[in-house]
Amino acid sequence: MDTPLWSPSEERIAQANLTAFRAAANARFGLRLDDYDALYNWSIAEKERFWRFLWEWAGLTGDLGAVDLLDGDRMPGARWFPEARLSYAENLLAGAPDDTAVVFWGEDKVKYRWSGAELKATVSRLQQALKAKGVGKGDRVAAIMPNMPETLAAMIATTSLGAVWSSCSPDFGIQGITDRFGQIEPKVVFAPDAYWYNGKSHDVRAKVAEVLKDLPTVVATVIVPYVDKDPDLSAITGAVGFHDFMAPHPVAEPTFERVEFDHPLFILYSSGTTGKPKCIVHGTGGTILQHVKEHRLHCDLKPGDRLFYFTTCGWMMWNWLVTGLASGTTLVLYDGSPFAPTGNILFDYADAEQVTLFGTSAKFIQSLEKSGLEPMKTHSLASVRALASTGSPLMPENFEFVYRSIKQDLHLASISGGTDIMSCFVLGNPISPVWKGEIQTRGLGMAVEAFDDNGHAVRGEKGELVCTRPFPSMPIGFWADPDGSKYRSAYFDRFPNIWVHGDFIEQTEHGGWVIYGRSDAVLNPGGVRIGTAEIYRQVEQLPEIMEAVCIGQEWDGDVRVVLFVVLREGMKLDDALAATIRKRIKDNCSPRHVPAKIVQVTDIPRTRSGKITELAVRDAVHGRPIKNTEALSNPQALDEFRERTELSGA
């Protein structure tokens, strides 16, 4: 295809933060960086200079010290800004808009907003209350919370003390919560009385009471009223209501504990489908630097803009979203089903609150297209300048759907990174064209390559996504991994001193990137590596198919491709449809992509952040135990994949 789906106007390019940043770098350092590629190359070649200049250009608060980087040739082991002292919370509150800092919708049930002053006042009172409970630098505070303003305030109050924040969403099961928080020994827990999902309330008080039995370090449990304004807390030993927790403490000016650049800020978790989740510890300075770079330069967010991302508090995109305050944006928070009460609620919200960046998942966009909804015909979306998609690869046809049925003049940014770095390796570029099916660019300061099996960078062919130089948002490490062996094993064992991310990726002729799925889920029939996303792209275009999952089944000394499909309600997989599926895959991929077996199922297992879990399906098919079904939002779906008679013969 020779024509991009979208190109920014000259005016938009001229007004972009990226353009201003490039001009400022040229002026400051006497450079001639004429385009994005030149800026990117400079950010890699002069990485220390780039990251310090970004801090200064963004006007962030704190002191970086005189040293940029120690042991910069080591991964892991590089230490950014070892003399720095800064506060994440201070930067968030300094940027929070005075008029409206945060807007909230809990489906169509609850709606309210806080000004910057209200947010700051709530943070100050929570800060004092936490301090009164003995919370200080390095202590952990955990939350089983919906994505609502009280969660935001509790996080800012926690980090203002130099304490460490960790959260999950209230739909997690008891084991899923204790597998996470039991490892990090929190001192305080925040939870709601209940939450809304798909129009129904779900009480979590009994679950919280059970969780607390396995968290002996907790000295205070704070219950935020959400569904009930005055919930009964008698069943939760030692629980206190959110407002009662703050009541003894008057509004005051918040104080901020400035900490080291690598001081723990957030603890996030791997999906945990192969055992207890790994506790991934992210540092203060790397988090804010990376997020501000992505918000301001790659998303072109400016003070006064409104930032929305559909996420729960159990997904890294929540942490990414809330850092938006540091760039002067209003946070637009939503909790509940994205399709309740109708499929249009998120677009209703975008129009009502004049959202600037609309963030969602590839799955949502795919579901929207399958449902037949066309927001372009029902909504204005005049304020929306950019749409971001992540969670899984966005298929080329979904790119076309966005421009055909959502909005034509729109920067569509497919982005990809992960919990491991709490940010992106590849993402959007607001001053460059959008090509069908391609992620636009590597992130500034991120030395991303595709490596072949011999560790050589390749272009125009698939390889492992690697990062060859250190960057500030690398994790500090894993919790309870004192010698760093688990951390090194997770990312650095395959190629020494190289971060191996675990994605199967290819660089295109336009300089963009295509992700073909997780490399540990890559199919290998006859020794040929096939990305599952290639098959999904073909299958999910068929109107009969709602979604699919593909695995490699060990068979007769080799691996054969097995495809499971969820069909539209009332439909059955017959020989004609199976032949249509195979022909489409063969014609558009290759004969090796064609599944040996196609099997109908009614549901596909997903992690709690909504990602299809191919590895769990593969283990179920092979009769292997699934070590941690609590990591799945619908573990019962695995039952359909066990002992399938269709897979027992040739």
From TrEMBL:
Keyword S-adenosyl-L-methionine: no
E.C. no: 6.2.1.16
Protein origin, superkingdom: Bacteria
UniProt entry keywords in alphabetical sequence: ATP-binding, Ligase, Nucleotide-binding
InterPro entries per the UniProt record, alphabetical: Acac_CoA_synth, ACAS_N, AMP-bd_C, AMP-bd_C_sf, AMP-binding_CS, AMP-dep_synth/lig_dom, ANL_N_sf
Chain ranges of the Acetyl-coenzyme A synthetase N-terminal domain: 36-91
UniProt cross-references to PROSITE patterns, sorted A to Z: AMP_BINDING (PS00455)
Gene3D superfamilies: 3.30.300.30, N-terminal domain of ligase-like (3.40.50.12780)
Domain AMP-binding enzyme C-terminal intervals: 541-611
One Pfam family named in its UniProt record: ACAS_N
Residue span(s) of domain AMP-dependent synthetase/ligase: 94-470
Any one GO molecular function term: acetoacetate-CoA ligase activity
Family per record: Belongs to the ATP-dependent AMP-binding enzyme family.
Protein name listed in UniProt: Acetoacetate--CoA ligase
Organism: Azospirillum melinis
